[in-house]
Amino acid sequence: MMPFSDKELIPVVEKSLEKVKPILALDGGGMKFLDIKNGIVFVQLQGACAGCSSSNQSLKYIIERQLRADIHPEIRVINIPFGEESTIEKIAKGLK
């Protein structure tokens, strides 16, 4: 359980995510921060990252690792594909 509220996490998550954007950009990719629900960070991989077969590794070993180092060792990140943003609430409830 996160010792912070979702609202408290927003500015620190945004700052942490800024650190990984240049890494993703090296391969023509990008990322958009969407929301935080129940301590789970929802992002949308963009550009080359959106359809890349390595996107799950990028999510776990670049993005999630940075968030865990900067914020909390149990923070999780989930990619929401373009057009599926309305599913965030449902996914968050299912992962409680």
- Count of all domains: 1
Please, what is the CATH homologous superfamily? Answer: Fe-S cluster assembly (FSCA)
Distance between the termini: 10 Å
Which topology does CATH recognise? GMP Synthetase, Chain A, domain 3
The count of DSSP E runs of length 2 or more, i.e. the number of strands, is 3
Low-confidence spans: none
Structure class: alpha+beta
What value does the average pLDDT take?
A: 90
The CATH architecture: 2-Layer Sandwich
Largest sheet: 3 strands, mixed
The string of secondary-structure elements, in order, is: HEEHEH
Estimated helix fraction:
40-55%
Estimate what percentage of residues fall within beta strands. Answer: 15-25%
Q: Which class in CATH terms?
A: Alpha Beta
The number of helical segments is 3
Shape, per Cα inertia axes: globular
* Rounded Rg: 13 Å
Order of strands across the widest beta sheet?
1-2-3
Structure description:
Strand 2 (40-47), helix 2 and strand 3 form a beta-alpha-beta unit. The radius of gyration is 13 Å and the shape is globular. With 96 residues, the chain is α+β, with helices and mostly antiparallel strands. The chain has helices spanning 6-25, 55-70, 88-94, and strands at residues 29-37, 40-47, 76-79. Strands 1-2-3 form a three-stranded mixed β-sheet. The mean pLDDT is 90. Helix 1 packs across helix 2 (55-70). It has three helices and three strands, in the order αββαβα. The chain has one domain: 2-Layer Sandwich (GMP Synthetase, Chain A, domain 3), CATH 3.30.300.
Quick summary:
The protein is of the alpha+beta class and 96 residues long.
